[in-house]
Amino acid sequence: MRRGPIVTHLDRYIFHQLVLGLLAVTTGLTLLIWLVQSLRFVDLVVNHGLSLWVFLKLTGLLIPSFVAVILPITTFVVVQFTYQRLAGDRELTVMRAMGLSPGALSRPVLAVVMLVVAAGYGFNLWVVPASLAAFGEFQWEIRNQIAAFMLQDGVFTPISDDVTVYVRSRDPDGTLRGVMIDDARNKSSHATILAERGQLVEGADGLNVLLYDGSRQEVEPQSGRLNILTFHENVVDLSSPARNQGERAMGMSEVSLDTLLRPPETLSRIDQARWIAEAHKRMATPIAAATYALVALLSVLTGTFRRHASILRPLISVGGVVGLLAVSLALQTLAARDNATLPLLWAETVVPPAVFAVMLFGPQVLAAFRQPFPRNTAAPAQQPLV
């Protein structure tokens, strides 16, 4: 057997390229997905007057969920590209000529896969639920206190479909000057409220505005008579009734793994099945990184050597990963409908990497077992003559 250090310079060389490529591809693809998904929230900045910091904070909380989804796919892309480039530059040929087996050439990938799987579990079990819970809470807070962000000086701001607010100016301490509120929530008494000044305050049901020195004008629908009521101090609720439904209910993507495995009894049976399937999905999806990496290694390290690079093997590996991904998504959907199919989900998670590992490392292991043990061929020591 060949003796040498456990971690060689070639291992460090390939591992370095894999890690740098994985960081670059994952970061670039994450930023691309973040840019596309953040377009849904541009309306909050353009039309509702939210600051850039609020926009970045809100959309930034979605980044961990993007990373958790694309990490197995980027692992496959980086492994396939790195080893394909090594083969194209004849570096892989030189390594094989040195006597390195597919198992030895796969050691850097296995090290990277261990890190990726560990990171995937960290994201799925802790980071992503916490970030999505913070995202939901922040979004709920914005929707219930949207008026504090939306009000702009000299602009008619629609708080909801039935409430419009105009503010002439705003002092540094938050005092509103020249306030007008058009309130059509009560169809039988459409009101227009005018006030010299006001202040946004937090109420029991949401955001309110405290008005001083103003009047409330209503037109009776039957007679068309204008009624004017002057006041020295008045409180107007700016929150929408649809938004004040108590505390926010957390979705299954925001709760912990223990809660998913033991869903609340208040949920329906269909929702309980979905929660349990989500728990098994969190535990199973990180292993996909190992499966996809083995597919890439099979396409590069097995088969006959060809002087000119072939496009067939990379295409087959890409098709294999797409097929595995489609089967995984189908089984996740099926498990969410019926938890009796969860064993199929775990079989699809565990069986393919085991089969691919046997295909890649099996011949080397069998050859090691078939190799005869070295015998002691030294000549026996001569007995001294008596």
State the shape. elongated
- Radius of gyration computed on alpha carbons: 33 Å
Strand content: 5-15%
Q: Largest beta sheet, briefly?
A: 6 strands, antiparallel
Task: Name the strands of the widest sheet in spatial order.
Answer: 1-2-3-4-5-6
Word description of this protein:
By secondary structure, the protein is of the alpha+beta class. The chain folds into two domains: 9-144 and 250-370, no CATH class; 160-239. 56% of the residues lie in helices and 15% in strands. The chain is built from twelve helices and six strands. Strands 1-2-3-4-5-6 form a six-stranded antiparallel beta sheet. Helix 10 (288-301) runs antiparallel to helix 11 and helix 11 (312-337) runs antiparallel to helix 12. The radius of gyration is 33 Å and the shape is elongated.
